[in-house]
Amino acid sequence: MNNLEQNIFDAKLLIVDDNRANVALLEKLLRRGGYEQVDTVTDPREVKALYEANRYDLILLDIRMPHLDGFQVMAQLRESKGDDYLSILVLTAELTSETKLRSLQEGARDFLSKPFDSVEVLARVRNLLEVRMFHNGLRNQNRVLEEQVRQRTQELENTRLEIIRRLGRAAEYRDNETGAHVIRMSKYCALLGEQVGMDVKACELLLNASPMHDIGKIGIPDRILLKPGKLDAEEWAIMQTHAAIGAEMLSGHDSELLQMAEVIALTHHEKWDGTGYPRQLKGEDIPVVGRITAVCDVFDALTSVRPYKKAWSVADALAELEKLRGSHFDPLLVDKFHNIVQDVLKIKEQFKD
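RE: above sequence
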């Protein structure tokens, strides 16, 4: 016996008829035909619960019954079956055009006229079970394919995000900073975004876009970017162009992630009082993601060791944020940053330089 044959004879069947003689006859025919899992019920009010408990492969359903007729039973089953392919074989002695049409509309798949012919009964039952088996096989195959597509899409998304993260780290390495800096500050950004009411999707975008805030430093000459001493006015003017360079590098794509990264690259050096660069934006004219990145970037830079300085204590760094609230930083964001300090410290410990 092949798998299809085995599955057909392993099918779960339910006979629904208020006439006990009809039920007994059909059960006998089906068991003789090789079907072992055959349940019966004479009260149509029990059908819905039985179906939900057993998920039958085929229901042989009488139309004319007390309490609930076959049409009402089918309406109940339609609510319970979900995306299941439910085979219903209608039993009737009055196979009028009206009965046929309404039965099909309610979900019937085929009809069996009374009195029953044993050959016809087994043929119609088998046909309906074959259709159900093929339908379920196709549905399961589609689910497997959908899962494979989902996994592949996730792999592509993960790869895309990893490239973006590494691109952000590449810019940091050029500036003698560690790749851990962009990991830490991006996580701070997501936490701070949540504090000011950004939704989960926006916080996730911020987490993945903020590491590219300094990507424009790739376009700054080494003689300026790596100069150990103080930059002169001309050099500082060139250094400031990294914001516009980064924005240009990230522009022109319909990806929400790259669009946010472009905004962050362009605005994370703007200051609350309008003295920042490159556009001297002021207050809430600065996009919130740029304001958030400014706070988190500076805090992590202050509390990290650099070739030209020691790490500040957390207390001193927080004091500096307070000192610059209302001038460099959005006062509300400075307040909200205090709410996430404990989480920030855990991140600093996890992603050390």
